[in-house]
Amino acid sequence: MKTALSTLALACQLALAAPWAAQAARDADAVPQAPIAAPAARVPHAAQAAMLASVRAGSRIVAVGDHGVVLLSDDGGKTHRQAQQVPVDVTLTSVSFVDERRGWAVGHWGVVLNTVDGGETWRVQRSDTHEDRPLFAVHFFDASQGVAVGLWSLVLVTSDGGAHWQAVEMPAPEGARRADLNLLGLFADARGRLFAPAERGMVLRSDDRGQHWRYLGTGYTGSFWTGIAAPDGALLVAGLRGSMYRSGDDGQTWQRIDTHSKSSITALALAGAGIVGVGLDGLMLRSRDGGVSFETEIRTDRLPLTAVTLDGEGHPVMYSRQGIVKAEGAGASGR
């Protein structure tokens, strides 16, 4: 029986508006909220908004977050400006670009936004105002084929650039009666196979661009919030309390990686032949051996870091619950 406590938990998670904040949401009813009603406001303090995801669009960096805020940087993260037009004032949780101009962002109310001008202006391709079933991640393989995932095993696919989205009926995990895992991230490997880090230590894999999925158990029982395919083809997933697992055989077996931290990991990014990561409590990670081992550093300000993208010179550009992250010096920023 659903309790007031579980409903309150979901309310808090949706208020936090982060992909990693949904691990208990399957146990709660959807919390009524005001439907999409207004475009995102352009405000002087946009750089302090909670940013939840970032990506490269050619030489530009595009970051998305609370209240439909989209920030753009054309100088490797040194300065940012707010996008000219975003048609919704809802939390955006993930963003994907296929080139310097064409991109997609997803978020609460099942919103999918599309841009064809490098993130300057956006239009709504999909939304569901009847139920706030958030989308937590989006990945486009090319200008036509894309996948979005979210709350309670929500999986959407498109083959026409997002003009139409179809829901995928997901199989139940082994031993479960229904498919109700929260799918918290998406990443693809060099062969085009798609992976979705999820709760309960699960990673989902699709070999046909989101049409069919199978479950990969890691031996972990907590939530994975992010993942990446290393340059050598190894898979890494990470999340709750510093947990990180690596697979060198396409997800058949997994080994736990010691991150020397109990702070949750929120994002991973390729850095040349290496990997960088960020997390809560100012956590910063770097691997120089394809994710076999990591060096760990904690920022003195202990900012809750939420996203990381590499600039044109390979330096990390980071974002947090307090917005754009300024460097603490060469050791902290990688610059």
Notable characteristics:
mainly beta; 2 helices; disordered N terminus; four-stranded antiparallel beta sheet; 5% helix; 335 residues
Walk me through the topology.
Blueprint: H1 4-16, E1 51-57, E2 60-65, E3 70-73, E4 81-82, E5 92-97, E6 103-107, E7 112-115, E8 123-126, E9 135-140, E10 146-150, E11 155-158, E12 166-167, E13 187-188, E14 194-197, E15 202-206, E16 214-217, E17 224-229, E18 235-239, E19 244-247, E20 255-256, E21 265-271, E22 274-279, E23 283-287, E24 295-298, E25 305-310, E26 316-320, E27 323-324, H2 330-333
Report what the structure shows.
- By secondary structure, the chain is mainly beta.
- Helices cover 5% and strands 36% of the residues.
- The chain contains 2 helices and 27 strands.
- It has helices at 4-16, 330-333, and strands spanning 51-57, 60-65, 70-73, 81-82, 92-97, 103-107, 112-115, 123-126, 135-140, 146-150, 155-158, 166-167, 187-188, 194-197, 202-206, 214-217, 224-229, 235-239, 244-247, 255-256, 265-271, 274-279, 283-287, 295-298, 305-310, 316-320, 323-324.
- It has a 4-stranded antiparallel sheet with strand order 1-2-3-4, with no helix packed on it. The protein has a 4-stranded antiparallel sheet with strand order 5-6-7-8, with no helix packed on it.
- The radius of gyration is 18 Å and the shape is globular.
- The protein starts with a helix and ends with a helix.
